[in-house]
Amino acid sequence: MGIAIITGASRGLGASTAIQAAKRGMGVILTYNSHAAGAKEVVLQIEAQGGKAVALELDVSKVGSFASFRASVATALASTWDRDRFDALVNNAGYGAFNAIESVTEAEFDGLLNVHLKGPFFLTQALLPLMADGGHIVNLTSATTRVATPGAAPYAAFKGGLEVLTRYMAKEFGPRGIRANSVSPGAIRTDMTSGAFDQMPEFVTLLSGQTALGRIGAPDDVGRVIASLLSADSGWINAQNIEVAGGYII
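Below the sequence we write its predicted structure tokens.
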């Protein structure tokens, strides 16, 4: 099934994707920024199920570090799998920030830009020499690109840019047989969002009421979709944005 690199996989959607991919027989290189303990726990879960995984540190906002990260990937591929190529890249790492347009600072704007658009662009560029022909890229976007959510303007704008970039990746990498798709989650309860949801249960009720299936999502709702996209069964899906939101505001 190949080897996948999944950024921001120490928790939440990334962790779920890593575990789901491993369940389907893939080797996993997962990255973390500050949550090393979480990354180690994901690796242990994968190994307990008979899979192979390696955790590498990466800050996707620091483009200057990507060359050394690529070298670390090459070392991990050789030492763990006796290979020099990987097969899939999931650009998942990110964070949320909500602020009205009139109050957004340049630092907040730049932080979101660097992580959600600039980082995936240049990380993909840096890793392309190590990606096998016939590989697959999945970029994580957001339902906020379709449904305008007050306070999410910069975040949604950069996720929208990532959707466009995904189509260009599919076009430009097509000659190598590399597919590129984006996955657009709706509201998801993760360890990062649970605190806010618990403090504002009325918000959960609102979001659930706006969703056809009557609830907010869980990480595995999204992780399973991403893992399935990486499989041969999805080999003819390309240049698409797939919203995984239970029918949010339809």
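The CA atoms of residues 5 and 84 lie 13 Å apart.
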